[in-house]
Amino acid sequence: MKLYILLVVLSAGITYVMTAIMRRLSLEWHVLTPVRERDVHTVPTPRLGGVAMALGFAITLLFASQLEYFGPVFAENTPWAVMGGVLAIAALGLVDDIWELDWMAKMAGQILVAVFMAYNGVQLITFPIFGITIGSSTLSLVVTIFVFVAIMNAVNFVDGLDGLAAGVVGIGAFSFFVYSYMLTRVTGALTYATTSSLLVAILVGICVGFLPHNFHPASIFMGDSGALTLGTLVAAAGIIVTGQIDPSVLGTEQVITAFLPILLPLLVIVIPLVDMTLAVVRRLRAGKSPFQADRLHLHHRLLNLGHTHMGVVLIMYLWTAVITIPAVALIAYSPRQVATVALPAVLISIVLTIRFLPGLRKKLQRN
Fold this sequence. Notes:
By secondary structure, the chain is mostly helical. The termini are far apart.
């Protein structure tokens, strides 16, 4: 555990310093996010923060590769495939941040990165539900690509308020780390050094290091390079842990625990996924491209209900924690025990959400 904490601190420190450097470079190169009708910010803001996040991840991973403790992890090609994928997707995002690619070019780039990672071992081979295996290698590849592209874009869709994407992913990644780390104990593994735990520990660090620059009022945005980097890491960690777990060791008396390896990676970014799904359905019903930006995301709707910028972000942090922490607890506690704590937490969250949404509160009072 001490080495994982070291990696979190190291990645946070590197990302913090690199973000300050990228902010200065963004200003010098005039790589700024303009103020558009759908935006919340009021002044053009630097947007190369994602480059700092990708560098923070890569440098920390290189450092970890020199530690004897993580020797078994780097004996395989998987960590290097993830690094290559992260650097490639960050480069794609950087090009988009500077020259604004059309959605088809971005989608093609995302698919290419997903294919690269899949062919280098980051691929969903099995569904850990009582030994069910995906039907064929082709289907496995298709599902892997779909998971990567969906999660990348889900994180990108939710990146609309200062500190929102980094905070939501950071909270989810912390929960994911606890789950992955506890899984090694439950399964009786010989070492706590696993690829998934390593990836999400560094992911937590880069989110922590970036947030001081990005929390409201943000001095820099992560841009597509950052959102795609975060999405790639979440997807990679989820795919790696999902395809390597035998659910029988989790206890057949608790059926829900057999679904945890699949559910948790999705729950980590459940808010971005819900937001993306609603946006795609909404735009298609209106006869528009699913990638055509609008001002109807969940965070925009919360703002329209009367919440402050920071209030919306904190509410979404709260719901991310309320959703992911009980899911992680299921690996160590029974559903009844988890529900005893989770249900009151959900009720309190509902009350706080209504209490701190002036517009919604007034509407309920009128009704």
